[in-house]
Amino acid sequence: MRKLYALLAATLLLGSANNASAQTVDFGGTTLNNDIVGFTDLYTLSFTAHNYGTARSMGMGNAFTALGADMVSASLNPAGIGMYVDSDVSFSLMMQFTKSPTTNSDPYYNDVPRSQQEFSDHTERFGMSSAGGVFTAYRGTGALTNFNVGFVYNRIADFNHNSLNASIGNHASQSMANLFCTLSNVDGLQTDSNGRMDFGNDPYYWGAVLAYKNGVTNKDEQGWVIDRIDPSAEIDQYSSVETRGSIGEYAITMGFNFVDKLYFGASLGIQSVNYKRNTYYGENYVYLNDQYPSGDFMPYQLDYMNYMQRTRISGTGINLKLGATYRPVDFLRIGIAYHTPTYYSLSLRYDAEMWSRTYSAGNNPDGYDLGPNGYMYDNVYSGVWEDTGSYGWGFRSPSRLLTGVAVTIAKRVILSADYERSWYQGIRLKKSPINGLEYPVVEDLFKGSNTVRVGAEGMVMPWLALRAGYIWSGSTLRNEYKDVILTHPIAKQQSYITAGLGIKFTRSVYLDLAYQYNTTKYTPYKTFYAIDSVDAANDIESRLYTTRTKRHIAVLTLGFRF
Known about the structure:
Layout: E1 25-28, H1 39-46, H2 55-59, E2 88-104, E3 119-139, E4 144-158, E5 161-171, H3 176-186, E6 190-191, E7 197-198, H4 206-213, E8 218-220, E9 223-225, E10 234-258, E11 262-286, E12 301-329, E13 332-339, E14 343-360, E15 376-381, E16 385-387, E17 392-396, E18 400-409, E19 413-423, E20 428-431, H5 442-445, E21 448-461, E22 464-473, E23 491-504, E24 509-522, E25 525-526, E26 529-532, E27 540-541, E28 544-561
Antiparallel strand pairs: 1-26, 2-3, 2-28, 3-4, 4-10, 5-10, 6-7, 8-9, 10-11, 11-12, 12-13, 12-14, 13-18, 14-15, 14-16, 14-17, 17-20, 18-19, 19-21, 21-22, 22-23, 23-24, 24-28, 25-28, 26-27
Helix pairs in contact: 3-4
């Protein structure tokens, strides 16, 4: 891992925690800082809209804080577990189709609409959104009408999506090679007498070391230089980020029903975290009309460079949920629930690799073997470098307060609405293998976030119900930072349109179907940047990109009551 002395807190660009010698330059972007559990990772693992659950709850926009009697109650308001009249076992399968269009801030062609210049990728994933059972442990005639216990799994976050971007014809000074060269100079990286680079086996510097091994940078008596990319070259840049995984919550839950008027519940939530991120970056070095620099001036020229990184974060979290629901009259329910912060214990695995090709047109001072046509192509591959240590990370996610109201009309129509307040400014890094690593800007950057969920269900026949709903989750960023550039983009606003239907085959067997359409907006980002706080003329940065996701989710629930 990173040297213990080599860290500073991130600035508002939140790009990195750098060596003390690098105070004047802030390095960041999606291609850097993948070797740690970063600030944006803490946020991503904390960002939940509670949109998953059973097909019934998802079809109604998960507006179940007051409604209850559903498996999703274990993760929303456990008082709803007390509303079950019978024991219930169900499982919910889902299919997701996600498209992630990305827009370049500087369109390639002025006469082509921006919407036609988007890069887009998609994913299709099959999984489980909910499963479990609720069982009646006690049923009586006194003040305590019944007591139910449940063991429930609910998916609470999903990370499956791909994004692509590209930028054509960039100036050579804005190559990632310049960033690696600057990092090596600023942090004083050295080579030994055998030409090997001394970096203390710190993964933070692996990109710079791999760049040296691939001929992207070089070392001479003046310092680190670029001697295989001519200043006249144009740089075509390509990048992709592929994320996979989810957070699933296993809830041990219980609910109490007092004379069908007052319900109390509690859930112990144990969360399983599985988050994977593959980050690719590539550059092609292009010369107008293939006019490469002369061999006398530059005997070797790079054709391309490709850089691949893989980050794996896994672990567990634990929290407690408490809730109550009051039914003053038969047609009205009012619910409230509090979720404590989730305390996570995480581990991280990281690896990286780089490959490149160097070209020579015949001027060959190092005596490489040339092909029969007098040219040399040197393909270099670093192999996979893996950080195999076991390092523990810990953090605290936001606490949440949920309120809801549900109304039943003529015993045929249900209208339900929820309001949720989440305090994202409460995210805290609690444990790190890196001494002195802090994220002090959380309270300045984030604010309390609002989520609204509404849903409706109508019984069109005794055996058939139709459902619809909507979820809106507002920005977590303070207004002055709504377009802040972070190391990795973070979701800042979501909305869901939902629909569904329910079929009762018998009193004991039911089948529910649901569909959700989700759109998510993210903060803008760059693939890399090195911002010089002293002289902006020295800044090195990619173009600015904006990604959003469009997600289609189909869910099927099969349940049994007894």
